Every structure is written in structure tokens, then in C-alpha cells.
UniProtKB/TrEMBL annotation:
Its main location: secreted. This is Calcium-binding protein. It comes from the Bacteria. The lineage of its organism: Bacteria, Pseudomonadati, Pseudomonadota, Alphaproteobacteria, Rhodobacterales. Pfam families: HemolysinCabind.
Amino acid sequence: MIDPTFYGNGALMLAALAIAFLDVNFLDEAGKALGLKDDDDEIDTSGPIIEGTDGDDLVFSDEDIGQNIDLKAGDDILQASFRDDTIFGREGDDDLNAGGGADSVNGGAGADTLRGQDGADLLVGGAGDDSLVGGAGQDALVGGAGDDILSGGLANDVLQGGGGLDILFGGSGDDALSGGRGDDEISGGDGDDTLAGDEGDDILGGGAGDDILSGGDGDDVIAGGGGADSATGGDGDDRFDMGGGEDEVFGDAGDDTIVTGGGADGVSGGKGDDLIRSGDGADTVLGDEGEDTVFAGTGDDIVSGGLGDDLIRGDAGADTLSGGEGDDMLFGGAGNDEIAGGEGDDALYGGAGDDQMAGGDGSDLLAGGKGDDTLIGAGDDADGDVRGAADTLKGGEGDDRLVLGRGDEATGGAGADTFVVTEGVTDPLIDDPDVANEGVTITDFDPDEDTLTLEVDADNPPDDIEIEDTPGGDAVIRVDGRIVATVKGGAGLTEDQIEIRGV
């Protein structure tokens, strides 16, 4: 008989090495039988091994030694001791509180709520839609099967969602979070966190700190937040919004959208047709494989399109733009830019500023825009050693320098321009089978303002240079009988108005 004067009504306290509760009966002061059935027991116990029943148990563990607690089936509520406890919730929707020690808590099947406290706890949700909260120690949270919610707490925690549509929040500390299979939402919180989405269409947010984010397979959304973050999309059409900080972004396979903020960022689009906006700062961007669109933003940026037909815009700053392989379109924007078309039939636009432009291989269009620009149509350099197909050069406003290879056409525009016919055009020993009309065409030469230079082999100078007028009012320049240039409207041009320079 239990005296309720000491223990109250409906509470039983037992201490033993092993206790299994089935039906427990006690008497009140009048001797009337009272019972605690195995459906909804309220049990206040202490001891190294505790077993619940196949009912809804309420357990408070306050022993000075660590305990093994097996609650069995039912919707159980447990408060563990301040020692190192091992707790099994099993079937049912359990509410398990780990206590102050380094506890191991397994919710088992059911929609469980597991809470760590001061120690380094291991919380395992098991099957079902579980809620796991880490507490103050360095905790490990494993959601298991089901749509779980995991919150890491204050220390450096490890969170694994498992299968299902999981929500993970790292909280304070340098946390490691992995969503597992399913469409997960993962937030690092404060600290230098590592986030992995794995399979599924995941949402990753780094938060404050220098974070590492990996989307894995699927169409992921990745937000870096503050700090110098590193983000990898994996396979799929991913979207990156990196925020402030000096970030590194790798799009990998898929048609990705990448947006970075302030800071000197590094971006690689990877395979696929990517859209990249790099924001403020001196950024380095590689479009890589695919037909990419790059908006470099303000700052002195370095951008390479890579393989594919790319569109690149430099904006403000002294940018270095390269189209790579493919038929590319490049805009320097404001600033003194360096623009190279690379392989393919490219279109280069310098914009405002004193720009350096080279078409490379292919039939290219070079338009200098405003400023004193240098336009090179003669392959990769001004010497004609590497020659592309016939190019079109337009200087625009300013005192421009236009360097012509075989078959090129040049218009200087406003300003005192210099037209340079390279040795690759003037040397009869150099032949280019890709260009049918080997001479160049100059459309607006003004001898009172512009300069025309013929580069010749200094070791083997030509024997004869002659100029003849055509019935249409043009001037044709021949070197040793070979046509090297036609000057539109240049009838009356004399040899003393041409500079001959050995190279």
C-alpha cells in the first residue's frame, strides 16, 4: 500500500535494477484499490535500466548513473537524467528530452520530438515525421525516413536529414548539414558551415560565415549569404544568389543561373547554357561549355566564354573579355577594356574607353566605339603570324589604330586614325588559302588627318610600290605588282603619303 500523503495521488516512484511495468495497483487511505494501467501510465523512476510498456508512458529519470531506457510502443514522454543515457522510443509519437549528459536518443517509428541539452547528444528520429533539437553541446542529429525538422543548437553540430522532405537549421557554430534524398531546405545559420543537398531539388542557405554549399543532383537554389562562400551546383538547372563576400561558384552540369554580389568572385558555369551576373568587384568568370550569357558588372573583370556561342557584357571597369571557341558577341562597356574574340566568327564592341580588341580566327566584326581604340583584324597579333578570315573593323569616335590582315575591311570613323597593313598582306611569300581577296579595303582614309602604314619584311624589302587610280575614284596600292590595299575614294593618293615600315 502506498500512502498518498507522501506520494500524492496517481504517482508511483520505484528504484530497481530492472523494472517492467504491466498493471500496478495500490490502495488509498480508505483501503480502496486504485490502479495504473499499461495504456496511460505516469511513472517516476530511477535506476540503470528502465523499460516502459506498450502504452503511453511518462518517465522522469533522475539517477546519478547513466541509464538504458526502452520505452517500447506508445506515445511516451521522457525526461532523462543529467548522466549519459541511452534511450529507445520505439513505436509511437514520443517526446524525449535527453537531459544533461552525453545522451543517445532513438525515437523509433512515429512522429517523435527529440531534444538534446547540455551534453554531446546523438538524436536519431527513425521512421516518421520527426522534430530534433540539438541543445548546447556538439550534437549529431539524424532524421531518418520521413519529413523531418532538425535544428542544431549552439555548438558545432552534424545534421543528416535522410530520406524525405527535410528542413535543417544549423544554428550557432560551424555545422555540417546533409539533406539526403528528397527536396530539402537547409540553412546553415551562424558560423562556417558545410551544406550538402544530395539528391532532390534542394534549397540551401549559408547564412553568416564562410560556408561550403553543394547542391548535388537536382534543380537546386543556393544562397551564400554573408561571408566568403564556396558553392557547387551539381547536376541540374541550379540557381545561385551568393550575396556579399568573395565567393567561389561552380555551376557544374545544367543550365544554371548564377548571381554574385560585391567582392572579387570566381565563377565557373560548367556544362550547359548558363546565365551569369557577377555584380560589383574584380570578378573572374568562365562560362565553360555551352552557350552562356555573362553580365560582368562593375569592376575590373576577367571573363572567358569558353566553348559555345557566348554573349559577354563587361559594364564599367577595365575588363578583359575573351570569347573562346564559338561565334561570340562581346561588349566591353565603359572603361579601357581588352577584348579577344578567339576562334569563330565573333562580334566585338568596345564601348566607351580606350580599348584593345583582337578578332582572332574567323570572320570577325570589331567596333571600337568612343575612345582611342586599337582594333586588330590580323589574327591574334599585329604581325600577321596567325591570320584569320576576312574581318570588318570600325574605329568609331576617337584616334584609332586599325591593324588589317588579308581580306579585311576597315572604317576609321571620326578622329585621326592609323591604318596598318601588316606584313601578312604585303609579303608575296605568305599565302592564305582561306581568303580569296588577299588585299585589304579602307573605306574612309583622309590623308590630311589619317595615317596609312605598310609593314614589309625588313630583311627582304619589296622592289616596287606603286599606286594607281581606278575609274571609280579609288586608289589601288601594289607591292611588287600584287594588290595589297584598295583605298575607297582615295584617287590622287601618292607614295609620300604612305609610311613604309620594315618589321
